[in-house]
Amino acid sequence: MSLAVTNKRTFSANAVENKTEFAAKTIYDVDNFNLWYGNDQALYDVNLAIPENQVTAIIGPSGCGKSTFIKSLNRMVELIPSVKISGNIRYAGGDIFSPGYKVEQLRTDVGMVFQNPNPFPKSIYENIAYGPKIHGIRKKNVLDEIVAKSLKGAALWDEVKDRVQENAFGLSGGQQQRLCLARCLAIEPDVILMDEPTSSLDPIATAKVEELVQSLKRDYSIVIVTHNMQQAARISDKTAFFLNGDVIEFSRTDKLFSNPEDKRTEDYIDGRFG
Ligand SMILES: Nc1ncnc2c1ncn2[C@@H]1O[C@H](COP(=O)(O)OP(=O)(O)OP(=O)(O)O)[C@@H](O)[C@H]1O
């Protein structure tokens, strides 16, 4: 991946929105961020200040750059060799694309849950203990504690406490997704990125994950990509509406859905396209 960082603007705490609207601390400051796959530009001058300990939803029609954006926040996009970027993304004040930035630390601080649950073909216990073991934790009593705490944090403990040694593939889809969330919590991140985490779940499992997201924001900053506007309206504090790689509107969720400033946002939330 080549880094064509040209933007030298100084860190701005709140790039787009009206500062009086929201007093939360910013965890990510995205500043004039552009991204290309080869010659095709997927993100255009994205400016967003993502608040700490809140839920930020990313909405927009298929192909508008939602996944590309969220995968930029943990530098997963650089796994695609043709990707080029300009502008910058600051996480906790540090430019994550600057030379020498410790990407391993970023991926510890920033966990991710994907569209389809992807547990390892191992026991429930091992799925969760895996990350802490990689970080050098060996003592069984410590690992036991982490496994229990993470499963409780993901609201799965009561359902699986008597069968943590069983294979994770024996869980339902909704349980597997909460297991993936527990796996993410086990490495004690500060941020959780979620790329359409409920798209493969039924309404009951979806409701459980939504409830969980609400309770987790006390301890974590959450960024969630969703196709489901009702979901964004239900669980997020702020929403960014993306269209063709541009951020059209970014504001408090209640405001964006009740009183959008841009006609394109209004048309999208009214279901006129996408
Ligand atoms: N690996 C890739 N190589 C080339 N182009 C890509 C790649 N991934 C995504 N794109 C392109 O970048 C643009 C944005 O795609 P992205 O997946 O980020 O959109 P999205 O809003 O998440 O879409 P969806 O809602 O359908 O998942 C699209 O035009 C897509 O074709």
Taking strands numbered 1, 2, ... along the chain, how are they ordered across the largest sheet?
7-8-9-4-10-11
Q: Which CATH architecture would you pick?
A: 3-Layer(aba) Sandwich
Report strand %: 25-35%
Bound molecules: adenosine-5'-triphosphate
Highest CATH level, the class: Alpha Beta
Helix content: 25-40%
Give a verbal description of the structure.
The structure is a single chain. The chain contains ten helices and eleven strands. It is an alpha/beta fold. It has one domain: P-loop containing nucleotide triphosphate hydrolases (Rossmann fold). The longest helix is centred in the middle third of the chain and has 14 residues, at about 140-155. It is globular. About 45% of the residues are buried. The model is unreliable at about 1-20 (pLDDT under 50). Keywords: ATP-binding, Nucleotide-binding, Transport. It comes from Lentibacillus halophilus. Pfam families: ABC_tran (PF00005). GO terms for molecular function: ATP binding.
